[in-house]
Amino acid sequence: MDKVAWQIAILFAGxxxxxxxxxxxxxxxFFTYFGSWGTVGIALAGIGIGWICLQLLNYCHRHQVxxxxxxxxxxxxxxxxxxxSMITHLFLLAYVGVMLGQQSAQLIPGLSSVWFVLLxxxxxxxxxxxxxxxIVTGSGICLGAGLLFFALLFLRQPHVPIPxxxxxxxxxxxxxxxxFLALHLLLALVVLLPVAGRTDQPNAVRLGVGxxxxxxxxxxxxxxxxxxxxxxxxxxxxxxVQLISSRLLPAGNWLxxxxxxxxxxxxxxxxxxxxxxxxxxxxxxxxxxxLFVMLLLVGVFALLPLFLPWSVSxxxxxxxxxxxxxxxxxxxxxxx
Length: 336
Prior knowledge:
Blueprint: H1 3-17, H2 25-30, H3 35-62, H4 68-76, H5 78-106, H6 113-128, H7 132-155, H8 172-196, H9 202-229, H10 231-234, H11 240-248, H12 252-283, H13 287-307, H14 311-335
Helix pairs in contact: 1-7, 1-8, 1-9, 3-8, 3-9, 4-5, 5-6, 5-12, 5-13, 5-14, 6-12, 6-13, 7-9, 7-12, 8-12, 8-14, 11-12, 12-13
């Protein structure tokens, strides 16, 4: 199958899952709280991310747009593009940092979280200053390992309870699905625009986004089934997959910690490289110094959840509203 399509599929799935997906906290609070309605929300959000992302990538291909800044330039004009781009980039850097910090805080009880933050940043650096292909390959390996890990957890449980639609029957699940879509669409765009925005293979982009959407939905639905089976144990946990794996697998806690450490580092490298590349091209900067500054910022933000746990919600909300504003404006522009 087309190599470009597979690359786009890997990048789409890795970025659209977002939030250091191996921990599972994001879709626990976005979807599992709502039972079967959350499963409907997963289907709508997953398909919605793929469809809107494809529409935006087609738009960017027609206008030769290869970065988030250029997209803002076409949608909002020169007067607002720089400010909006700066705000969005800052929230995304903060998001990468706080999610890294939150995951590190939960890995091994009794061991200092600061060491796990440093180890994750070392993994990030080891991929970040290699070739781009290393990051893509690492993202693909992490996706494959994560999928096998989730499948193993799924096979170890006796059954999956299916809550009736009368459970949590309110409109909150729709709002949470839209918020998940907005945040994770923004993450996917940041990663895909430098790759797909100027490609001369639009069919590969469509095929890649389609395959990536399928992988994303498979991950989310597997996680939903696992979480529903262990709801009473993990509904207040910040790292539900870790808690489940420690109970179902021998040395599950350490296995999860190793996978999460590598996955967190690779995913951080993916986002940082994707954020830095368009800036270096636009301003003719050297990549290593810019990456170094970004790493420092991510390191500072990664320490915030260790001392200010509420910082995760603030940063994630800011990035979510940036994504929601972009979606609404794009739809409005297409209608006018």
